[in-house]
Design the sequence.
């Protein structure tokens, strides 16, 4: 099977097989990213499946997933490559009689190079999906480095020369929008905004991920979740919480949802007490008789 | 900037048969740029390039593909969608030279009968029939004959004839008649569903009207007139209820950013003091050579923020925004203290601590002591009282943020308070919702106060707020 996508329908079929239900915009953008060899920048609220998308693409293409988790203060040494100082030092101590030239050539060879995710993705010979997760967390300087790598797919290591990727990896960047990314970075990417899914799509997701759930239950469930997402919650329920909820209801043996069921299992869906209160008021649930 | 015609010329060379369509795409990108969606020239080129890979008949695909290169911020998506509808309508609207729209008045039916049919379709809920009903509603109610015989279409006429609230009630009644009285939970779910369908109908009507106007008056002109500005450029004073909700979502990241900015800037990586103990330990693995020095990391310091806001009538729409900001700030950071004033000041931190925003505003209006004499803004008195009660709590680590228009009703300014606060605080900023050109006119004493703050900035919309937040980094 060729790893490249042949068309939008192919994208959607293969993502579905990988357990990810794409919508129009997802399949279009994934297809274009493959064709134009551009990275995808995915933004959206937490828990709508941004990271999941990259994993699904990797599965669909039977490619290796290389993941770079970003955080404040991430630097080249952690993201790109680093020399293994300790090993180099040991090497020097081992053979003290050698001349410097020889040692030098030896010291900066493959053996002492610690490959980090970005370099690994570049040098990957097979098909790879590079996931740069939460790119909004990195500093401005690091963004510039990313820019260089993403536009040319090459990087220069002074001691080794320029490393050029043999095969362009499929790149997915995710952002929670805690900071505005630079124009330059955005320009190099295809932009994809993932929002909470529509009722129909979320229902399909529930049915495909929790196959034992009866359809009627799934339908009720996602409608309640949609209703809750309209509220201003500290943490609105994400897709994975919807799935957890479906699983919970199933384990408890409910096949339909009424007020009591919602009240007693609300904690699966909402993680803050204050959100739970709000939800109770919104759904007009009767007060819990055990609590006074 | 190369004009779009020139660009089209260059790009259209290999496939002249695409010329018309290509020109459309470029016009579209142009219109996006005029609407404030930052689509640059490289995006125009990118857009034309991707056409090769897109099935042009597949309209949703074309839309998503263009969006992927032209929209780089989610707030711009709304303008994009509006414009896309106009430039690439699903059903080509009759244009100027086809007489259909202009001459022949559509067959009108009894309005009650129409609403009954609409209700039926809405209960069914199929998107195609809702779209169809929207189109017919525009024919039915939106049309106005001009003196020269042409027709114009108006949204307000449609919604005057079709009462959405009444429809919602009717839908709920119809559903009840069919399935029996619902439980409270069930009713809530029905209501959500019906509201969603009505919203869809409303949006279809709006875009249908835009489409017709585009056919009559030319696409470019309509595009410029009808697209709503992106949410971050909407004036705080002109927010619709829907936009307010949208704004809440946009404020959240800004508030977070603001709070991180006012905290002492955290340094990253190896810039703390040398940690001797850990360095020595590390060196053991390299035979005592301190190859890998360890540093103490600096402890991030919690932002200490005082927010003082004017919530009087003259800035009430701005105040809603200010309070939103206060609320979001408090939601995420513990060391934020907020004060509100009209002609006297009171601390409102506790009121916004518990959850709901509207609840907080309500409690503020009823519980906080904001009015002292007549309920007209009195900056002088409020500042003086703040100084008397809280000045000692303002330390060199705190940032003070004042939000208001500095219209003092010709009362005493007491600007010495700001002078003193500026000495005590790390930084002191003033966000003014009034256009800078009006500062100092009439009873505004903005310039008096501006002398003693680190910066007084005009903040009328989210974009300006974002700029302010960026700048104080």
Sequence:
């Amino acid at each position: 099977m060729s790893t490249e996508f042949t068309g939008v329908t192919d994208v959607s079929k293969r993502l579905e097989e990988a357990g990810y239900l794409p919508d129009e915009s997802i399949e279009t953008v994934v297809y274009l990213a493959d064709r134009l060899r551009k990275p995808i920048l995915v933004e959206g609220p937490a828990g709508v499946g941004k990271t999941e998308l990259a994993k699904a693409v990797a599965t669909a293409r039977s490619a290796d997933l290389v993941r770079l988790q970003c955080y404040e203060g991430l630097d080249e040494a952690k993201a790109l490559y680093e020399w293994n100082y300790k090993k180099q030092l040991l090497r020097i101590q081992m053979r003290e009689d050698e001349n410097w030239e020889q040692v030098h050539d030896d010291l900066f060879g493959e053996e002492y190079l610690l490959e980090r995710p970005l370099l690994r993705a570049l040098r990957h010979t097979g098909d790879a999906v590079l996931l740069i997760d939460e790119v909004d967390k990195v500093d401005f300087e690091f963004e510039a480095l990313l820019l260089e790598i993403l536009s040319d797919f090459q990087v220069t290591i002074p001691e080794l020369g320029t490393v050029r990727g043999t095969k362009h990896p499929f790149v997915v960047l995710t952002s929670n929008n805690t900071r505005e990314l630079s124009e330059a970075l955005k320009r190099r990417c295809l932009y994809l905004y993932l929002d909470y899914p529509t009722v129909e799509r979320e229902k399909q997701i529930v049915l495909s991920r929790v196959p034992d759930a009866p359809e009627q239950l799934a339908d009720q469930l996602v409608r309640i979740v949609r209703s809750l997402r309209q509220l201003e919650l500290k943490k609105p329920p994400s897709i994975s919480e919807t799935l957890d909820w479906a699983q919970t209801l199933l384990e408890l043996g409910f096949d339909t949802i009424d007020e009591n069921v919602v009240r007693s299992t609300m904690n699966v869906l909402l993680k803050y007490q204050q959100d739970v209160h709000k939800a109770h008021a919104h759904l007009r649930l009767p007060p819990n008789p055990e609590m006074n | 900037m190369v004009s779009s015609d020139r660009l089209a010329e260059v790009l259209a060379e290999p496939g002249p048969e695409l010329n018309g369509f290509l020109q459309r795409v470029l016009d579209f990108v142009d219109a996006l740029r005029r609407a404030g969606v930052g689509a640059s020239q490289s995006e125009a080129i990118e857009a034309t390039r991707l056409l090769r890979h897109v099935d042009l008949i597949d309209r949703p695909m074309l839309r998503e593909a263009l969006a992927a290169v032209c929209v780089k911020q989610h707030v711009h998506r709304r303008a994009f969608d509006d414009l896309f509808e106009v430039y690439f309508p699903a059903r080509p609207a009759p244009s100027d030279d086809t007489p259909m729209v202009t001459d022949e008045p559509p067959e009108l039916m009894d309005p009650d009968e129409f609403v009954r049919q609409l209700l039926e379709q809405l209960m069914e809920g199929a998107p195609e029939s809702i779209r169809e009903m929207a189109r017919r509603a525009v024919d039915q109610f939106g049309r106005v004959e001009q003196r020269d015989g042409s027709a114009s279409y108006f949204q307000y006429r449609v919604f005057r004839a079709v009462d959405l609230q009444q429809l919602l009630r009717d839908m709920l009644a119809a559903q009840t008649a069919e399935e029996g009285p619902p439980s409270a939970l069930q009713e809530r779910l029905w209501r959500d569903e019906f509201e969603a369908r009505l919203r869809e109908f409303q949006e279809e009507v709006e875009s249908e009207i835009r489409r017709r106007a585009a056919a009559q008056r030319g696409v470019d002109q309509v595009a410029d007139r009808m697209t709503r500005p992106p949410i971050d450029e909407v004036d705080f004073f002109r927010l619709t209820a829907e936009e307010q909700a949208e704004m809440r979502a946009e404020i959240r990241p800004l508030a977070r950013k603001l709070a991180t900015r006012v905290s002492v800037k955290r340094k990253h990586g190896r810039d703390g003091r040398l940690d001797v103990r850990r360095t020595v330990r590390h060196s053991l693995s390299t035979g005592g050579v301190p190859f890998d020095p360890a540093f103490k990391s600096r402890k991030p310091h919690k932002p200490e923020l005082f927010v003082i806001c004017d919530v009087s009538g003259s800035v009430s729409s701005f105040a809603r925004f200010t309070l939103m900001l206060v609320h979001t700030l408090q939601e995420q950071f513990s060391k934020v203290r907020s004060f509100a004033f009209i002609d006297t000041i009171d601390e409102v931190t506790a009121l916004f601590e518990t959850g709901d925003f509207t609840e907080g505003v309500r409690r503020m209006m009823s519980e906080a002591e904001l009015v002292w004499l007549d309920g007209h803004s009195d900056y002088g008195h409020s500042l003086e009282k703040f100084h008397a009660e809280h000045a000692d709590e303002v330390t060199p680590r705190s940032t003070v943020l004042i939000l208001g228009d500095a219209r003092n009703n010709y009362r005493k300014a007491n600007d010495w308070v700001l002078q003193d606060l500026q000495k005590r605080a790390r930084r002191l900023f003033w966000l003014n919702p009034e256009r800078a050109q009006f500062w100092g006119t009439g009873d505004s004493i903005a310039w008096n106060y501006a002398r003693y703050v680190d910066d007084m900035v005009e903040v009328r919309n989210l974009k300006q707020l974002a700029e302010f937040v960026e700048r104080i980094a």
